[in-house]
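User: For a benchmark we're assembling, each entry needs the component sequences followed by a predicted structure for the full assembly. Here are entry 17's components. Please fill in the structure.
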Amino acid sequence: MSGHQCEKKLWFDIYKSKKSEVNNILLRAYLFENEVKKIYSKDQNVLDLPSKEEEWIKSKEKTEQAINSKDINVIFEGVFIFFDTYIRPDILIRKNKGWELLEIKSSGELKNYYITDLAIQSYILKKLGINLTNIKLIHVNNNFIFKTERDYRDLPLEIDVTNQVVEKEKEIPSLIKKLLPLTKESPCPNIKIGDHCNEPHECDYIDRCKPKSNIISYEMLPGRIKGTKIEKHCKANGIKKLEDVPADLLNENQKKIQKCHKENIILLDREILSYEFKDLSWPIYFMDFETVQQVVPKIKGTKPFTQLPFQWSVHKWSSLDEKIKINDANWFLEFLDQNIERKFAESLLNELGDKGTIFIHSPYEKTILKNLKKKDSCKDLENKINKLEPRILDSEKIVKKGFYNPIMKCKYKLKVINKVIPISDISYEKKDNIVSGNDAQLAWFICTDPKTDEKEIENQKKLLIDYCSKDTLAVYYLIRYLMEKTKNN
Ligand code: SF4
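Assistant: Structure for entry 17:
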């Protein structure tokens, strides 16, 4: 499947593989697979093979025995090899005249590349003489609502994709023929970066393939550039540098960015910023949320893929002269409390009181609040949540209007802006730290895993509190800096 996306990607996987880190996407997939396997193994005689690749010879023998014996009727992760092509079907179920092949995908919909994945498996299985009665995809039921502890029977949904897979099988011999030589001491394919690098997944090797250049390309402009008049004009005229794009193709924000790069200047538009800050009311709050996207929901009333808020951090700033520090943050943090959404909303409302401007960075927190007030557990809080709305200001929008430093390279993420705010002492360094929303989600999964010990949970909690407080403090530094600069005008 890697080679199907890009031959060079497969070459890297074979010869210079990156150690894949555990991430929340892999964990979500693992949790979903686990639940599916529990459902499909109920009252069956199952062969469940270890996923460790080093045990594949033993696993292959066990698979052969299971296929030939009548004792086993469900095989998880069987090992099959033909044409030097190694496959591990997620589930095989014995039927009267053969086997049903099922692939588990922790996604809420059918994607085209799943068919290719299944076609490789069905092609190899058929070549080994295994009769496939049906081919199915098991994916996540988006409408599943978690009601009672440990009842996930309606979480997986099956779709019969036999016809599509059989059609796709015709392409598999040539795919295998094309990719096999890569496994035999071949040079790295000469493939340039392109649209395929993000389809169906963002490739792990983008850093290796990206041309090393200091050029600020028009492609780096914020927002969607693909398919726009900017891209069409630049491609037709061989333009790469942002500086060379005709200004009349750019919107106001893009024009500002281009000017800063062309003239190597920092933009700090005092007039615009003063206008943005004119209605601020004290105390000023800086607010940030962390959420988790579950596939196997664990909180009553929640569905797969909805964003479950589990942490907030708030810094309160009472006057211009006050200097606030990271430990001044107040926070909420829960993992599996069945009333987590209610407690999250109630404690937040309590923290924010009924007056003062609230800063966020990105519209995300507003979306979460909007979703929360629709929840049964929070419906009576709707009015109070609505009253927060007019108090909230988005610092990202303000920066886009009135501030830009060429070091930001067209990016407005808080961590990028933080680097160009001279008064900030915040560092988002990776080593053993939580440095992104994805890391925070991973921490939630670690803390809710029954195998995690108390010591590790305490460690993850500390890292989460530190991370979320850094974000709110970074917004404070940004706003304080811009206010000071504006005041000095
Ligand atoms: S970054 Fe793109 S070109 Fe490079 S290996 Fe990945 S998919 Fe292939």
